[in-house]
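Late entry, written up from scratch paper. The run itself happened at the end of the previous shift, but nothing got recorded in the book at the time, so transcribing now.
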Amino acid sequence: MKKLRTYNLFFLFTGLMVFWIAMSGYLDAFHIGLGVLCAGMVIAFNYRLKTSRFFDFELDNLRNLRVLKVFFYLFWLAYQILLSGFRVAFVIIHPRMPIETYILKFKTRLPHAQAKMVLGNSITLTPGTLTIDIADDEFIVHALTPESAGDILNDNMPLHVFQLFSDKKIDVIHDVKIISSTDDIQ
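Output as recorded:
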């Protein structure tokens, strides 16, 4: 079992308090006190979860995370979410509703589970796409339109995620299979 350091708890508490203040919008003593109480309770309830490892092979791969890249990645992801949101809104309000759904199966060359988790969540956060399953290196993703499928298949998002953990530029996705009808499902 790993031990949480004091500065980890301090940053966790500070982050929770900043989130509390941003969400509540009040800076009076009562609301700050409630924030301190809630942040303390969240830390206390999750302490054992944070100090446990669930798998023997689990390692702290986030040490390789490039923090400056994360900052830029979050802005890039927010832009992608906004852009995809407009695309989905256009599809919904278009008189013909040009929906053409796909199931994408592809494998990735992401280095570890945390990178796969970031990619899966990024795909799901982007309107028009949904990560259905991740098994080993294989992703199964639902795409609402060819454009939303293209955003994944052009390797743009997977490469951004890969570069959060590495300086290399590689083709992250491979063995792509596009399923557009029930006849293609195995």
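Helices lie at 6-24, 29-51, 67-93, 113-125, 146-153, 156-162.
(Scratch paper discarded after transcription.)
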